[in-house]
Design goal:
Radius of gyration: 44 Å
Number of helices: 23
Shape: elongated
Distance between the termini: 85 Å
Number of strands: 27
Strand content: 5-15%
Strand order of the largest sheet: 11-10-26-25-24-27
Helix content: 25-40%
Largest sheet: 6 strands, antiparallel
Length: about 950
């Protein structure tokens, strides 16, 4: 057993005074040994007997012998002219020499590691006044001392230094077995220049020569490396300790259930635990695996460092630190990550300092929170979760031993080909090392033999990287962008560059060790991804590759974002929300007729009745080239000049909504959209489109320029998230709750491991739209699904479709938006290929709002609402001015009788034949479906409007177009 920490041990640390009484440097195993001393070069070839004095026992000399005991407490030299105390011979000095005494070396406190076996040591000769040199020899047994300084002086008081290395173990030359005794050490060795050696002696001599050459080479290296000790000592005084050194902590973002993980963020997946949260048997297993003398030594193994240096120097495999303290030092400090010899010295000194300032429990805690366990797991807590799906505090003895066994090599070494000790990679060796760990625990009496006999190898979780949810490259990754924004809103970080008092939000999430509970409903999120992501089971499965969907679902009563799908990766473009690239904000899509929900609300809020009558015939705006159309449909077959506002909404005619907006002002429409929750809107006349923050800019300053009356039917892009938030406000009776993603924020204290709450959701409901207005809108919107046979069986829901064209014949954006009292959802389908903006099905048909978007919306909402109560929606109150419209009352004429009305016949536009009610000028919308029509025209510099079956009119100046 090593006894590094015992000052009375031969391996205890000692400092010896140098010249002038100054403390010499700490013991250094890298120092040059005696046989490489300059004094050795002065020995004559005739007297060089493997390190014995060259003067060959000439009389009258002064002895400079120093005796070094096993503990190396002192080195004593014989005064000039005196024989050695044990009857040895003395080496003469110059006749002019005075009396040079060699002082004793007193033990001090220095780090001495490992077993430095000392056979003999040379003492540099003290220079006499006459310039002579006394050859010295230290007699010693076997001392576990790295180096020992022995002060000595010649006539001028110059100090000598004893280099204690590993050499041949001599006996006193005065007794039997001396250098000239054939039976002593080196017996039958001839002097240089003399031959006549027997074959065995020659063989031994050659072997010694080879060994000495290797030793000499190593000694040169040690001498050179030793110079780094002083620098390292200085360096260690300025290195921060663990309590000053924050480890990077992963941030985990959870769903609302606090169980399922939305994403993990950080460079290393780590959670801090305290020593009290780590079972004692786990600590002992790690010590057994990595450093069985951890609790008894002082944290540094200098001989281990020398061994590693020698191994590396001679081309062997790279070796690092051996003790747990050294391993911790290397893993915790970035400037100790290289593989240089200077690093090894720094590492050792830092480990010594750590051992002085922290107790063993603290060091073990820091170590177990730092070390890598493979599978992307840093620290014992994440390792326990990764390998055994439990917290570290719940680990059994057998499980703790598995993790301890992994530490040595947690993954395959591509350089050597060794498979490591992960049971998934190398089950046989992993189990063998597990046995080694447990046997070591028994040996150290940390585990009873009886308990050991009962343990069996535990079941390991199938390989699953701890980084599987790490980062944002998942369909849920876009949520993190909003988490960052909300952290910034709470003042915890900044979205821009870091400041003196605030870190940037990306760094805060990467290194801050947060635990964030989001509003995401995991079940709904999975259903949203199944419906909108291009996979089996989605309406998009098998459709053209350019088609892309986005879906956002919001809880009306709280504003919680329940599900969010904006693409397959949060590191890519977010089709449901905001994107910033080179300072350009993007992400909106023209909502088409789905935006009419806000125009309708604005009209009702301005006192206009849903029964007011409006002229729906296409026209060109006076003094402009703006053509306002109804998605190419001929309204003469329906309500013509006498379309009620309700009917215009259900049939999605554009012209009446233009007239409404012209009457009340486009700013009123903008204001209503803003009150509902639409925060960002883009112009369409410039490339790239200019965006506006509706929460900061006044509606009256934005309309009619740049947002003209065509805002009524959705020409100007908005985000899917904002649209879902606006619908939620209508569903909630006009009470606005800002859509948000964060429910609770906690941060871990890296010192105590405790979690503290630093923020949560802040409910701030506001009645921003009068309840009677919101309810009246809902009453109209619930008629649309009814007219189309409904989407959600057994439920009332409000809904609206919308489509916008790319050109005069192809669609580019299609929407389905709607809600129940519990959930509001917006779905968009468009193209992710800018070279192919047209959206068509695999059969070549245009994609409209009532097609793929409605299919996705219906599939998701059916699953999202499963198990929830079917709640009614309000009925219309028919409030407001019925005379506010610009239409004309229709002249009632009897409908003509069609010739030969056969079954299955019909009129152009899709009205069923044989039903005279549907052929009159005012067919009831609940009985007769909307008429079809061809695509309309549009302006050349921006996408014109389009209903579910065609586009609206355009003016060529960026203002024209119809929604559907």
């Amino acid at each position: 057993m090593n006894s590094y920490g015992d000052p009375s041990s031969a391996r205890g640390r000692a400092q010896y005074p140098g010249a002038n009484g100054d403390h010499g440097p700490a013991d250094d195993p890298y120092q040059r040994p005696s046989w490489d001393d300059p004094g050795a070069a002065r020995r004559s070839s005739d007297g060089d007997r493997g390190g014995w004095p060259a003067n060959n026992n000439r009389a009258g000399g002064a002895s400079a012998r120093a005796s070094v005991s096993g503990r190396a407490p002192s080195g004593r030299a014989t005064p000039p002219g005196r024989g050695s105390a044990d009857g040895g011979w003395a080496a003469p000095v110059s006749p002019a020499s005075g009396s040079a005494s060699v002082g004793s070396a007193s033990p001090g406190r220095a780090r001495v590691g490992g077993r430095a076996g000392v056979g003999s040591a040379s003492v540099p000769d003290a220079p006499g006044s006459g310039g002579g040199y006394g050859a010295g020899r230290a007699s010693a047994g076997r001392a576990s001392v790295g180096t020992a300084s022995v002060s000595g002086g010649g006539a001028n008081g110059a100090a000598g230094r004893a280099r204690v290395g590993r050499a041949v173990v001599p006996v006193s030359p005065a007794g039997p077995g001396g250098p000239d005794d054939p039976d002593g050490p080196g017996g039958r060795r001839g002097r240089r220049g003399t031959g006549d050696l027997d074959p065995a002696a020659k063989k031994r001599a050659r072997k010694r020569k080879r060994v000495n050459m290797l030793i000499a080479a190593f000694a040169v290296f040690i001498m050179l490396a030793g110079g780094g000790v002083v620098a390292a000592t200085w360096y260690s005084t300025s290195v921060p300790m663990p309590d000053q050194l924050p480890l990077p902590l992963a941030t985990t973002v959870y769903a609302a259930d606090k169980k399922n993980i939305v994403a993990k963020l950080g460079d290393e997946n780590r959670q801090i635990v305290t020593i009290k949260q780590i079972p004692d048997h786990v600590q002992k297993a790690v010590a057994s695996a990595e450093d069985r003398n951890f609790y008894t030594h002082d944290g540094v193994d200098y001989v281990g460092i020398a061994r590693a240096a020698w191994n590396n120097f001679t081309g062997g495999s790279k070796q690092g630190a051996s003790t747990i303290t050294q391993q911790y030092a290397r893993n915790a400090y970035e400037n100790l990550q290289d593989d240089s010899y200077q690093r090894k010295v720094k590492e050792a000194i830092l480990a010594s300092k750590l051992n002085d300032q922290f107790d063993k429990d603290e060091i073990m805690q820091h170590y177990l929170n730092t070390i890598y366990f493979g599978r992307g797991a840093y620290g014992i807590e994440i390792a326990a979760q990764t390998y055994f799906a439990k917290s570290a505090s719940k680990l059994t003895e057998a499980e703790g031993a598995v993790l301890a066994a992994v530490i040595k090599q947690p993954q395959v070494d591509t350089a050597t080909g060794h498979k490591g000790f992960d049971p998934a990679d190398n089950p046989e060796e992993a189990k063998a090392r597990w046995e080694y760990v447990l046997n070591g625990m028994v040996e150290k009496k940390w585990l009873s033999p009886e308990k050991r006999a009962q343990l069996t190898y535990p079941e390991i979780q199938k390989r699953k990287s701890a980084n599987e949810a790490f980062g944002v490259k998942t369909p849920r990754g876009n949520v993190i962008n909003y988490v960052k924004a909300e952290l910034a809103e709470r003042g915890l970080c900044t979205l821009g560059p870091a400041t003196a008092d605030k870190v940037d939000c990306s760094s805060a999430l990467r290194d801050g060790g947060y635990k964030i509970q989001t509003t995401i409903n995991w079940k709904m999120q999975m259903e949203a991804e199944k419906a909108a992501q291009r996979k089996k089971g989605s309406p998009l499965d098998g459709q053209p590759d350019n088609l892309m969907a986005a879906l956002v679902s919001v809880e009306p009563k709280s504003g919680k974002v329940l599900a969010y799908y904006g693409g397959d990766s949060g590191a890519d473009y977010d089709y449901a929300g905001l994107n910033t690239n080179a300072g350009v904000l993007s992400g909106g899509h023209p909502p088409g007729s789905s935006f009419k929900v806000y125009t309708l609300a604005a009209a009702i809020n301005e006192g206009i009745s849903i029964d007011s009558i409006w002229d729906a015939r296409p026209f060109t705006v006076k003094n402009t080239k703006i053509k306002v159309q109804n998605a190419g449909r001929d309204v003469r077959e329906t309500c013509d000049q006498a379309c009620t506002l309700k009917e215009s909404t259900v049939r999605s005619y554009n012209v009446p909504f233009y007239h409404v907006t012209e009457k009340i002002g486009a700013d009123k429409v903008l204001s209503m959209a803003r009150q509902a929750g639409v925060r960002t809107m883009w112009e369409t006349k410039d490339i790239p489109p200019k965006w506006h923050d509706l929460t900061k800019e006044k509606p009256e300053d934005l309309a009619p320029e740049p947002f003209f009356n065509v805002v009524a039917y959705g020409q100007y892009p908005i985000t899917v998230l904002d649209h879902a938030n606006g619908l939620a406000t209508l569903a909630n009776g006009g009470v606005y709750n800002k859509a948000h993603f964060i429910e609770l924020i906690e941060q871990q204290d890296p010192e105590t491991g405790q979690w503290k709450k630093i923020g949560g959701a802040k409910a701030d409901p506001k009645q921003r739209i009068p309840k009677n207005v919101a309810d009246e809108v809902t009453a109209v919107l619930k008629e649309i699904p009814k007219a189309n046979n409904g989407n959600l069986e057994g439920r009332e829901e409000a809904g609206k479709t919308g489509t916008w064209e790319y050109d005069q014949k192809d669609n580019a954006h299609a929407w389905m938006v709607g809600y129940t009292p519990q959930v509001a959802t917006a779905v968009w389908v468009g193209s992710k290929d800018p070279k192919k903006p047209q959206i068509k099905t695999k059969g070549g048909q245009d994609v409209g709002g009532s097609g793929l978007p409605a299919d996705i919306w219906q599939q998701y909402m059916s699953k999202a609402l499963a198990g929830k109560e079917a709640m009614p929606l309000p009925d219309a109150k028919k409030m407001g001015d019925k005379e506010a419209g610009n239409g004309k009352e229709p002249v009632q004429t009897p409908p003509p009788v069609p010739p030969n009305p056969g079954p299955g016949g019909g009129n152009p536009g899709g009205n069923p034949g044989g039903n005279p009610i549907c052929q009159g000028p005012n067919p009831p919308p609940l009985i007769c479906p909307p008429a079809g029509g061809g695509p309309g025209g549009g302006g050349p510099d921006l996408p014109p409007g389009d209903d579910d079956d065609g586009g609206g009119g355009g003016n060529g100046n960026g203002r024209g177009g119809g929604g559907g």
